[in-house]
Amino acid sequence: MPTTRSVALAALALSAALHLPPAFAAPPDPARLFTEHCAACHGGDRLGAIGPALLPENLGRLKPAEAESIIRHGRPATQMPGFAADVLDDAAVTALAAYVFTPLPAMPVWGEAEITASRILHRDPATLPAAPQHGADPLNLFTVVEAGDHHVSIVDGDRFTVLDRFPSRFALHGGAKYSPDGRFVYLASRDGWIAKYDLHSLALVAEVRAGVNTRNVAVSADGRVLMVGNTLPHTLVALDAGDLNPLAVIPVADAAGNGSRVSAVYAMPPRGAFVAALKDIREVWEIPWGEPGRFPVRRMETADHLDDFFFDPPYRHLMGASRDGRRGIVVDMDAGAMVAELDLPGMPHLGSGISFSHEGRTVMATPHLREAVISVIDTGTWTTLRRIAMPGPGFFLRGHETTPYAWGDAYMGREKDVIPVIDTRTLEIVRTLRPAPGKLTAHVEFTRDGRHALVSVMEDEGALVVYDAATFAEVARLPMRKPIGKYNVWNKISYSSGTSH
Ligand code: DHE
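Above: inputs. Below: predicted complex with heme D.
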């Protein structure tokens, strides 16, 4: 006859074998569970390996409940398996999900040695063809980032066909950036991977991990240098745009040594310099790319922490949004000083702003993440000309030199499936498109000639919907897996005033 004690011991042995903690066992140790089940793919330090980094900064908008579901059921179309309940029970899954949302105890080290060691050369640059190997207009291609299964599609902007589709690193973010001749595209992932892809041969050329958590990448107007802005560690990293070798790792800190995350870095072609928005110190940094191997930093003090930038067309002035989302400021780049304050509450998403001419004035228009409006600002007087009421707060706005219409979205609102179209002459919404009722729809980009507008239905079973930009008639619909952003080569390399740079 088994005694109570022998039953309890047998249960304990069984639970241990199955990793099932009995009611009276110690709570699960997430660090041990991580080492046992996750470290092989995600790195013992959580910085990522063949799987992505599992750090709060890198998980973006993922919610803890979604993380738990991924641990239980895996991630389709990736190597992430689901863990059955007899391997990780509910308590273990919850503990692991909480663990990956816990910040690292110390700033990770990711310097020149780590960056150099991470570099992967997929193609010998000497073997790349001299001319495009496809029949499409090389300057009317689109790079489309599909977040659903972490792929990138290259789309012919005349025929609306997919020329290539290749797997990307986990969670690409920010716009794709092109070499000045439009031949190469550079992609940045939140995990710090920078990829270089050749649009002539439709092949990945090289990859390098420039940081542990990256915001974005910018390309110098002479095509020689890439600048990468990181939040982990606190660095800006200059890469050789040819082979992606690091040229410099620039620590980001104020004069007293207080480090800062980089919020975004952009190229300012007429100034021959990069400019960086910093999240934690009240400074704007300008870094010229003209002297090979040297990246001196010009620091400009600002009244606020600035989160994102927009530039007037000559790149003389920089508009920055304050981190607390209450206002914007204008910095004269020659003087290095603030010259105006902007009435921009509700977290303007300045990086998605556009410029156009309205009644003889050059204006900029920006969506707001927390207010259902588009603000239109006169860049001569820095006053707000109009607040256009939108169906919801939006993320993106797009125009083109050849069309009087600007296309927005209501990404952050209740009606997430609408694309409001604004007439830039009257500043009124003149059309509301609904390409896929009930499905999140946002982010527009025009073809090179501005005749067509490509819109993303941003769902896993999503689509790229092509509209005639004058009649608003649907022209084509390409099925895609959560197509987040799309970037037209010509519009980017010509710095079209209707798109982001
Ligand atoms: Fe973005 C660009 C910041 C969340 C999709 N986003 C940018 C840029 C910045 C930025 C600074 C410009 C960099 C560039 O293109 O070089 N984004 C932020 C945030 O701070 C925010 C709100 C929070 C965060 O997690 O970082 C944020 N962004 C998102 C999303 O949730 C989106 C919708 C989906 C995703 O991929 O994470 C998203 N961001 C985009 C896209 C662009 C972008 C598609 C490029 C826009 C373009 O057309 O150029």
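Residues 1-23 have pLDDT under 50 and may be disordered.
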